[in-house]
Amino acid sequence: MVGDWKPVIGLEIHIQLKTRSKNFSPEGYEYGAEPNTLTHPVSLAYPGTLPVVNKKVVEYATLLALALNAEIRKTFHFSRKNYFYPDLPKGYQITQYDTPICENGYLHFKIGKTWKKVRILRVQIEEDTGKSIHDIDPFYTLLDFNRAGVPLLELVTAPDINSPEEAQAFLVAVRQLVRHLGISDGNMEEGSLRCDANISLIPPGEDKPGNRVEVKNLNSFRFLRKALEYEIERQRQIYESGGTVERETRGFDAVKGVTFPMRTKEELHDYRYFPEPDMPPYELSQELLEGLKHKMPPLPFQLWKRYTEELNLSEKEAEFLIEDLDISRFFEEALKSYNSPKSILKWLMGPVRASLNQNSISIEQFPLSPQIIAKLAQIADKEIVHFTVASQKLFRELLKDPSKDPEKLIKELSLDQKADDSSIEDVVRSVLQAFPEKIEQYHKGKTGLLGLFIGESMKKLKGKADPRKVKETVLKLLNKEQ
Ligand code: ADP
Ligand code: MG
Q: Does 106 lie in the same domain as 58?
């Protein structure tokens, strides 16, 4: 919030779907491909060609609608939005107008420590345009039609967002959601996720916002935040100097960090919307709906509730699991073989995370299965092998050959051979002898040093001892020292 001016923000987010073919024509799309190599008579609008709906697009849109808890329209049609632009070969875009595939949903997202709910006004299916390239030829605008007809979903939020930080966090949540659903790669750098932001300010002491401005084409999280911060400041200054903010569409200059006027907002009738006559209305089948409901993975907010309320995990642990939903999936899989959340987490947040970081890989590329991690957790819990040894020796050996069975490996490396009482005592004694000053400090009240004595002894015993037994022995010998 800036002074007493309250920002009101609504986002229009374009999500590029990762389908094999385009929305209404059979060719595929690949970011960065040689210009004009991914085209087809339909997407180039050759006379006499007819569009056909891509079923996968409808399926993906429905999946998103379900994830947003939105009201799904069982029968819908497409509409033509007419405008002239060189990168729009048909002279109109096929989109949805009066029958969007869904309306009135919501999405929870996390901002700092709290969750906020943003209403979703609608999601509509549409197609992308080609690209106009102005900076290659000094005299001409070049056109690349590869992107023409690529399927997009436009998600429109209610103006429920109240700060640039919230807007950014919301967009991050949308990216996470579409990736989790597997419908888009959500890559902002490649334009798979694009955002227009509407923003107005409510003056101090009032409850209605002034005119809203739409800032177009914000193609990074940072630009979204920067553009909104700039707009808040610009609009506030206009009001404070007695002016009014014009309802207009603006662009964002990322280099200068400022927004600039693009055009005053078109009136709806400028687009002459009418139902697409070349395609019949689409009927969503009940089977598809049921099938998708069945396929729907649990969503971040549900998982958060499950982890913090049902499994009693700490916020830090829950955060770790939902930050990367593939980790949460791995965790859930592991729980199926060994239902001890804390033990599995100890492995995931410890040795597994370290290994992922060290090798710069994602959990999907991690060589050990959730079942193996569950087994390791069980082995450590039962103290067949101590956690330290299991997480170092056993884990490392398994990474070298993930096909190995942990239990056989324990035998092979004779990790389960426990030291007998007298050898434990020998080792503990030698450890204590190495730390005379520490023992003195211990007796003066620094009881935390107990961990050091136990740890050192375990290390010397190569983990082949029951840690409880070692602790007992350490205590026994320490008390004798007095
Ligand atoms: P239109 O049909 O004029 O495009 P919509 O109802 O589709 O209007 O809303 C477009 C976007 O503008 C939505 O994301 C919505 O949340 C946002 N919006 C509406 N009113 C305001 C406002 N006062 N301030 C900021 N954004 C707003
Ligand atoms: Mg709109």
A: yes
Between helices 325-337 and 370-381, what is the axis angle to 10°? 60
Domain annotation covers residue 363: yes
Q: Are residues 241 and 371 in the same domain?
A: no
Per the CB < 8 A criterion, the answer to whether 340 and 381 are in contact is yes
Span from the CA of 426 to the centroid of ligand 2 (angstroms): 78
CA distance 176 to 371: 26
Q: What are phi and psi of 253, to 5 degrees?
A: -95, 105
- Residue 236, in any domain of the structure: yes
Inside any domain, residue 58: yes
Q: Are residues 159 and 252 in the same domain?
A: yes
Mutate to test the pocket of ligand 1, among 163, 171, 198 (most ligand atoms within 8 A of CB): 198
Residue that is written with structure tokens 């959601």 in the block: 177
* Residue-range definition of the domain harbouring residue 463: 421-481
Reported as a single tens digit per residue, the pLDDT across 190-233 is 999 999 999 999 999 999 999 999 999 999 999 999 999 999 99
Identify whether the C-beta of residue 443 lies closer than 8 Å to the C-beta of residue 481.
Answer: yes
User: What separation in Å is there between the alpha carbon of 198 and the centre of ligand 2?
Assistant: 10
3-state class (DSSP) for residue 293? helix
Helix (H, G, I), strand (E, B) or coil at 19: coil
Average pLDDT value for residue range 378-382: 91
Q: Which residues of 157-175 are buried (b: 16+ CB within 10 A; e: fewer)?
A: bebbbbbbebbbbbbbbbb
Tokens for 329? 């999936």
User: In which band, very low, low, confident or very high, does the pLDDT at 338 lie, cut at 50, 70 and 90?
Assistant: very high
- d(C-alpha 25, C-alpha 22), whole Å: 5
Within the chain, what is the greatest distance between any pair of CA atoms?
A: 99
299 within domain boundaries: no
* Closest residue by Cα to residue 457 from 393, 388, 394, 397: 388
Atom of ligand 1 nearest to the CA of 158: 16
The neighbour count for residue 283, using CB atoms within 10 Å, is: 10
Tally of structural domains, the chain = 3
Rounded Cα distance between 445 and 384, Å, is: 33
- Distance, CA 300 to ligand 1 centroid (Å)? 26
213's enclosing H/E stretch is: strand 213-218
CATH number of the domain enclosing 462:
1.10.10.410
Q: Name the band, by pLDDT with cuts 50, 70 and 90, for residue 417.
A: low
| Residue 350 shares a structural domain with residue 465 | no
- CA 85 to ligand 1 centroid distance, Å: 24
Mutate to test the pocket of ligand 1, among 11, 97, 123, 156 (most ligand atoms within 8 A of CB): 156
CA 212 / ligand 1 centre spacing (Å): 8
383 and 437 fall within a common domain: no
